[in-house]
């Protein structure tokens, strides 16, 4: 009688589920940890210490955290871990709550344009680029009632003036900023933002519907290595806005701060910024491939009919154009 030996499994272990299970467990843990980190950074970004510019980097990059959400969801589904799925879903919900309301198209809810309205166009024309005249012509062609330019030197101011002065009979400029208007400009003055720099102005636009305060700002640069001067300028701007007695106020220009930058909090406590007419974040810099919105049109006391970011001239910032109902 022949006794058969029991069959043995192949020695390679390729049919064992244990390595696959271990990989899934590792992926689940990594996904859960990354999801938790994204949630914490989104919800508590203003508490991130600004050591070596870390706070500035996180604030500026905040909208881009949304790119992590699909990766988290895929990782969670592959890993089939409950904690990973929960973290991925929570990250998606937090990001959506923070940003989806601000990227919906304004055109879905904008009030109809009234007969009494104000269109403001603004752009940083990049001093030394030689593009101020082209920018001025492009902005004037939009039919804007007010054109505000920033980062002007003597040459770019002259070039812009040669294009705008005939169509815009009222104008005022100081330092690197200037404003041209079809409406009379009253009470124009350099805006003292506490640093002694001529990078801001304030004035009243005397529209047929009454005065509108306008502020044109070219904030100091913000870099991870230092942004104290920009922060001080924005804080002082917020103080001016709080004391402004006009019911209708517009503040435009290059704020050198993204929409989620904590340095803008005091300004946005006074004024609001409308969504883009076609939706999205409305990034304005760099013009060739924008990744952050440094240029803004903030206002109070008016309904915003449209708000867009468009190329104009050949500078390194896109222009921002907003139309507001005066009544």
Structural overview:
The longest helix is centred in the N-terminal third of the chain and has 26 residues. The chain has a 6-stranded mixed beta sheet with strand order 3-4-2-1-11-10, with helices on one face. A 5-stranded mixed beta sheet has the order 5-6-7-8-9, with no helix packed on it. Strand 6 and strand 7 form a beta hairpin. 33% of the residues lie in helices and 22% in strands. It is of the alpha+beta class and 327 residues long. The termini are far apart. The chain contains 8 helices and 11 strands.
Summarize the structure.
With 327 residues, this protein is α+β, with helices and mostly antiparallel strands. It has eight helices and eleven strands.
For the termini, the CA-CA separation is 107 Å
The fraction of residues assigned to DSSP E strands is: 15-25%
Weakly predicted, low-confidence segments: none
- Please state the structural category: alpha+beta
Mean pLDDT: 93
General shape: elongated
Rg result: 26 Å
- Helix segment tally: 8
Query: How many β strands by DSSP?
Result: 11
Q: Tell me the strand order in the biggest sheet.
A: 3-4-2-1-11-10
* Largest sheet data: 6 strands, mixed
Q: Which range best describes the helical content: under 10%, 10-25%, 25-40%, 40-55%, 55-70% or over 70%?
A: 25-40%
* N-to-C series of helices and strands: HHHHEHEHEEEEEHEHEEE
